[in-house]
Design a protein that fits this description.
The complex is a heterodimer. Chain A is an alpha/beta fold. Helix content of chain A is 38%, strand content 19%. Chain A is built from 16 helices and 16 strands. Chain B is of the alpha+beta class. Classes of the chains: A alpha/beta, B alpha+beta.
Chain lengths: 499, 136
């Protein structure tokens, strides 16, 4: 392109421009501190409206007082001075969205931070939006496979559900979330991973892991790191769900992971205290429940008439020393449709994922489980519950009757089967084969230490030899007597050769 | 508990002093100052006075417009600005406070209360910049 050409183009562009004359509302900065600005004037400003400072920084109005407003500054605030002009935009805070955002890492304002250049935006989505109403919704009845046997079998999650992952630090909360994202390959699911107050090194590791697993193609990472100011951590989950809504509006199924909401609550507490809102329990402000409920309520499954699509939410909460009765954990437990409870003890016993099956529930999940899985996993939870009870009891006595012994042996094998390595999600057809072999007693005579090997080899063998059964499960998600007979035969054949 | 703001105090002073005759006024003002001193509000007096000013202006249909320009304005422009402001805000009198600001490059910038009408060249260039970077 010649210089003349560029100049011509530029001329044309400039001709198409007409300066707009309009009266703007302007306020003055009274004071700035810790990412918060008190601004006078701006009498017509709305709550959570976006304002811009004279240096181009954006802020969001949170407090409306009689003669000043409290603004949280979303960018570097070191250049904002007392007396600076503040312009109201008349818009609620928005973030740019487009299909090009897939595979990218963006900050809470939708600006890419992965060094791969700008993202061309199609539209802008408001960060705060009222959750879809009752008439637009539909019951949750489609499974969202996590690829983890213990979850898919016992605590199944449906598309549109909100399932809390809760546990102490270092119990594998993020691992469950990442495995779930990895397992969505080929499931027509878009994933949004919102990282709130995490170390940048951890985020980088997650991104590399997702890239390696080919999962970044359908994933967006929204990052508000530990080094960024609290206002960004505060808006990050809302930005994440706005991106999810953009995809849901195209009729797609979306999975959003908030990692983690305890840090989000802490960031909001920080902002609230700086805005001089009165502190309540654990110094959190009075509306900390609404903070999370309005976020998680935006997860939904919409019916076909209103465009379909769904948003499944997996919020994560970190507890302190297993205390699930603290303020934020109880709040979020009551908002969500169930929780996956992870325990340090189990983790160190080598039971990973360290899910405590007794404390974990899924309140809508079983409706979303496929029939075949329901059939094989039905007795599993009971088996495990009985096992735990007997285990404590059996430590004292040595003389146990046959039945008790059998239950104990079965329980040990069930625990072994439910263990799963990180980053190795399993397709549900294979899970069904394994769980069928377990619950029908085919594993009872296999030594516990050989269970893992048995499981792996059996799943591969069955995939090769029980083709009809696999086809039925995969295509029609049906469980027929003929299929079961074939599976039975295959397992028996396999057992003959297994040493 | 409701906090009494400077605005409330200014309003109260205005309402109390409105009906006072010329002879009563010195006594009234003395009372106001004593009241402020008693309530330890003297440090807030400048703010209260500014608000009082605004309340009086609002009540009398008077607006104060700050007009910034690069060069001194001629009478015709002043008249035009006064006229259009009168129409826009429906006020009886317009007081123009002029000041010079070279940073505007050209044109005018009018500020009335917390509203700004920016007709400066600087603002237009900024708009052009935004236009070219967002649509290009």
């Amino acid at each position: 392109m010649s210089t003349n050409h560029i100049v011509e183009n530029l001329k044309k562009e400039i001709e198409g421009f007409s300066a707009q004359i309009k009266a703007e509302k302007i306020g003055k900065v009274l004071e700035v501190f810790d990412g918060i600005a008190k601004v006078s004037g701006l009498s017509d400003v709305k709550s959570s409206e976006m304002v811009t400072f004279s240096g181009g920084e954006t802020g969001v109005v949170l407090n409306l007082e009689e003669d000043a407003i409290g603004v949280i500054i979303l960018e570097d605030f070191s250049n904002i001075k007392e007396g600076d002009e503040v312009k109201a935009t008349g818009r609620i805070l928005q973030i740019p969205v487009s299909d090009n955002i897939l595979g990218r890492v963006v900050n809470a304002l939708g600006v890419p931070v992965d060094g791969k250049g700008a993202i061309k935006a199609d539209r802008a989505y408001p960060i705060e939006k009222v959750a879809p109403g009752v008439v637009t919704r539909q019951g949750v009845d489609k499974p969202m496979a996590t690829g983890l046997k213990v979850i898919d079998a016992i605590i199944p999650i449906g598309r549109g559900q909100r399932e809390l992952i809760i546990g102490d630090r270092q119990t594998g909360k993020t691992a469950i979330a990442i495995d779930t994202i990895l397992n969505q390959k080929g499931q027509e699911m878009i994933c949004v991973y919102v990282s709130i107050g995490q170390k940048d090194s951890k985020l980088r590791k997650i991104e590399a892991r997702l890239e390696e697993g080919g999962a970044m193609k359908y994933t967006v990472i929204v990052s508000a790191g530990a080094s960024e100011p609290a206002p960004l951590s505060y808006i990050a989950p809302y930005a994440g769900v706005s991106i999810a809504e953009y995809f849901m509006d195209q009729g797609k199924d979306v999975l959003v992971i908030y990692d983690d909401l305890s840090k989000h609550a802490v960031a909001y507490r920080e902002i609230s205290l700086l805005l001089r809102r009165p502190p309540g329990r654990e110094a959190y402000p009075g509306d900390v429940f609404y903070l999370h409920s309005r976020l998680l309520e935006r997860a939904c499954r919409r019916n076909e008439k209103y465009g379909g699509g769904s948003i499944t939410a997996l919020p994560i909460i970190e507890t302190q020393a297993g205390d699930i009765s603290a303020y934020i954990p109880t709040n979020v437990i009551s908002i969500t449709d169930g929780q996956i409870f992870l325990e340090t003890d189990l983790f160190y016993k080598g039971i990973r994922p360290a899910v405590n099956v007794g404390f974990s529930v899924s309140r809508v999940g079983s409706a979303a489980q496929i029939k075949a899985m329901k059939k094989v996993a039905g007795t599993l939870k009971l088996d495990l519950a009985q096992f735990r009870e007997l285990e404590a009891f059996a430590q004292f006595g040595s003389d146990l009757d046959e039945n008790t012994k059998r239950q104990l042996e079965r329980g040990k094998r069930a625990v072994e089967v439910l263990k799963q390595k990180q980053y190795s999600p399993q397709k549900f057809e294979k899970q069904i084969v394994t769980l069928y072999a377990l619950t029908k007693g085919y594993m009872d005579d296999v030594p516990v230490e050989k269970i893992k090997e048995f499981e792996e080899k059996l799943a591969d063998y069955a995939e090769r030899n029980a083709k009809k059964f696999f086809k039925e499960i995969l295509e029609q998600q049906m469980w027929t007597d003929a299929g079961e007979a074939e599976l039975k035969k295959t397992i028996e054949e396999f057992k003959k050769n297994f040493k | 508990m409701t906090v009494i703001s400077n605005n409330n105090i200014a309003e109260a002073i205005y309402l109390a002093g409105k009906e006072k005759s010329h002879t009563e006024q010195p006594v009234f003002f003395k009372n106001v100052v004593e009241f402020l001193a008693r309530k330890k509000l003297l440090s807030k007096a400048p703010d209260i006075l500014a608000r009082l000013d605004k309340i009086i202006n609002d009540d009398e249909g008077k607006i104060v417009a700050k007009v910034s320009s690069v060069e001194k304005m001629n009478e015709a422009t002043k008249k035009e600005i006064t006229h259009s402001l009168k129409e826009r805000y429906g006020s009886k009198t317009v007081i123009l406070e002029e000041n010079l600001n070279e940073k505007l490059i050209g044109g005018y910038k009018i500020e009335v209360n917390d509203e700004v009408i920016d007709l400066s060249v600087k603002n237009r260039m900024k708009q052009l910049q935004e236009f070219l970077t967002t649509t290009g």
